[in-house]
Amino acid sequence: MPEVIDQMGRRVQVPARPQRIISLVPSQTELLFDLGLGDRVVGITKFCIHPRVWRKSKTIVGGTKQYRFDVIKSLNPDLIIGNKEENERKGIEELADEYPVWMSDISTLQDAIEMISCVGSLTNESEKALSISEEIQNSLESFKAKAIPEKALYLIWKKPYMAAGQGTFIHEMLKAVGYENVVINERYPDLNLSDIKELAPDTILLSSEPYPFKEKDFGELKELLPDVSIKLVDGEIFSWYGSRLLKAATYFKTLV
């Protein structure tokens, strides 16, 4: 079998045209659908909500952290696609002992574009992958970011509050809109109310995932920072790094 190197630098032997693919990451599952691989994807996770039709037609192999190894074995996959951040390392290593496991590692938009290209190559759908990548790049390049950056705090969790910091894909998307991320910590730091007040953002963005923020969550933050602008935002647009990025530029226009 041909040997490829994934985004973690791992060497993986993958069939020239894999026929039984399992995706362990929601955003990459959607990409496989948009690459036209409906007849070759056999398993997805319970969090793979797009496309909705696959929820009934594909086998659920567990979550992004815990896997149903017996179900995966019964599917006899010839390619499993995962992600360094979203998947649990020990389980991935166990799967890699038995099957070809290709891992993405994404922090920047360029990482995402590279992933789309690699998955297209892995599945013999390079032309479709190139088309998707070019459309994403062209749409984001044509989008005009804010002329005057606003300082923004992007929250992904409550109790405790958790924010998207430096070195995350969300941080890259904030820059694409024109926001200045007030969190200088790496990854996803916990914040208390005094931390949030000290950061003094102009705008607080409350994500729809993984914590499903609602308007009822505005109160405590508005009381803390009366002049701050608080917005509910689509977490999929900010954190999904597959073909969902095709919708990013249009969505960003609604924010500015």
β-strand number: 13
Percentage beta strand:
15-25%
Mean pLDDT: 96
Gyration radius (Cα, Å) is 19 Å
What series of H and E elements makes up the topology?
EEEHEHEHEHEHHEEHEEHEHEHH
Span between termini: 49 Å
- Helices and strands: which structural class? alpha/beta
For the report, how would you describe the main beta sheet? 6 strands, mixed
- Helix % is 25-40%
Helix tally? 11
CA-based shape:
globular
Descriptive report:
By secondary structure, the protein is α/β, with parallel strands linked by helices. Helix content is 37%, strand content 20%. It has 11 helices and 13 strands. The strands form 3 sheets. Strands 8, 9, 10, 11, 12 and 13 form a 6-stranded mixed sheet that branches. A 5-stranded parallel sheet has the order 5-4-3-6-7, with helices on both faces. The longest helix is centred in the middle third of the chain and has 17 residues, at 126-142. The protein is globular. The mean pLDDT is 96.
Concise structural overview:
The protein is an alpha/beta fold and 256 residues long. 37% of the residues lie in helices and 20% in strands. The relative contact order is 0.13.
Keywords:
256 residues; alpha/beta; six-stranded mixed sheet; single chain
Can you lay out the helices and strands and say which pair or pack?
Elements: E1 3-5, E2 11-13, E3 21-23, H1 26-34, E4 41-44, H2 54-57, E5 59-60, H3 69-75, E6 79-83, H4 89-96, E7 101-104, H5 109-122, H6 126-142, E8 150-157, E9 161-163, H7 169-177, E10 179-181, E11 190-191, H8 193-199, E12 203-207, H9 218-224, E13 229-233, H10 235-239, H11 248-255
